[in-house]
Design a protein that fits this description.
The radius of gyration is 59 Å and the shape is rod-shaped. It is built from 13 helices and 8 strands. 51% of the residues lie in helices and 17% in strands. The chain has 352 residues and is of the alpha+beta class. A hairpin with a 2-residue loop joins strand 2 and strand 3.
Length: 352
């Protein structure tokens, strides 16, 4: 009798241990346990730790409460400015209501993934290429709102959405590279022009100072020579001031002009002689004949230049010269107007 009682107690203890083992559950810290009894939700989710369920009646499902990183496959689309792009993104979300995550949607991970893909394609179609490349923060916020709106009923909260990469066609990449190069070249030219403007102002000020002090140009020349000689060059390039060349050129022109002017203005010895005396019965000497001397014909004074001042004793007996007769063979074939012009141009008035 006692043996049967002991056997029954041992059997009951073993059955109890087996039942306890089948009813015992352990929920981890980052999980929540949702219990279904005969297919119905039983109470609130079980907290982390040790918990018991009724074997053969209850079923415990654990839901992960950690933040899930879900990559979105690359989506191809056409932007609002008709550019074909391929965009990759990533979604960070977590479950805030374990019961709804199991009841409202079959697989909340797959649902969030599909919703993220469709929302990403919608964002691509509504945005310009420049927004996709430079204004990603605004696009991320808009994409987060589009995914989070239906996910709230699923017990899922979208924590963050990030666009990872935007792939462009090769032709578009080359076009953008040329555009960027042209823009940088434009800015470089503007900077160079501004530098030239500032340098020109400073050079103008330096030129004004050097024009007031001519010795400054010589000092600047010596500084240039010192700078060139410091490089240990075998050839020394010495700049020559242009103003000095112009000064020498003007001096040479004046030197050439002075002998010609003095030679034309000096009267010949024969022109200063007194006229022959007129005796009774002889005709008066012709004034034009007196002026046809080799010296007068060879070097007439230039027209328009003032005659030099001669002493009174040298010009006292000099007759007035009216014109110069041209040889007959020279003026034979010329028209009347031409001979008249030549006569007027060759008219010489001696100084008195």
């Amino acid at each position: 009798m006692i043996q049967e009682l002991v056997g029954a107690l041992v059997g009951a203890g073993v059955a109890g241990l087996v039942g306890l083992a089948s009813a015992a559950r352990v929920v981890k810290q980052y999980e929540r346990g949702v219990v279904f009894r005969f297919g119905r939700l039983l109470g609130a989710p079980r907290p982390p730790g040790f918990t018991l369920i009724v074997p053969m009646m209850d079923r415990l499902q654990k839901v992960n409460m950690q933040i899930v990183t879900l990559p979105i496959p690359g989506q191809e689309g056409i932007t609002r400015d008709n550019v074909t792009v391929r965009v990759d993104a990533v979604v960070y979300f977590k479950v805030v209501d374990p019961a709804n995550a199991l009841i409202q949607v079959e697989d909340y991970r797959f649902a969030v993934s599909q919703m993220a893909q469709t929302s990403l394609r919608s964002i691509i179609g509504k945005s310009d290429l420049d927004d996709l490349l430079s204004n990603r923060e605004k696009l991320n916020q808009g994409l987060e709102l589009m995914i989070d709106s239906p996910a709230i009923g699923w017990g899922v909260q979208i924590d963050r959405v990030e666009i990872k990469d935007v792939s462009l066609p090769d032709t578009m990449k080359r076009s953008m590279a040329r555009q960027a190069e042209a823009d940088r070249e434009r800015r470089a030219r503007i900077i160079n022009a501004d530098a030239e403007l500032q340098a020109s102002k400073k050079l103008a000020e330096a030129a004004g100072v050097m024009s007031d002090q001519p010795a400054a140009l010589q000092l600047r020349l010596l500084q240039t020579v010192v700078a060139v000689a410091a490089e240990k060059n075998s050839t020394l390039v010495l700049p020559f001031p242009v103003e000095l060349l112009r000064f020498l050129e003007r001096a040479a022109q004046q030197h050439e002009a002075q002998p010609a002017a003095y030679g034309a203005r000096t009267p010949s010895p024969t022109a200063t002689q007194a006229p022959p005396a007129v005796t009774a019965g002889q005709a008066a000497p012709d004034d034009s004949a007196a002026t046809r001397t080799p010296q007068a014909e060879a070097a007439p004074p230039p027209t328009g230049e003032p005659a030099p001042d001669l002493p009174e004793e040298k010009t006292r007996g000099l007759p007035e010269v009216k014109t110069r007769d041209l040889p007959e063979e020279t003026t034979r074939d010329l028209p009347e107007e031409a001979t008249r012009t030549l006569s007027s141009e060759n008219a010489v008035t001696p100084p008195f």
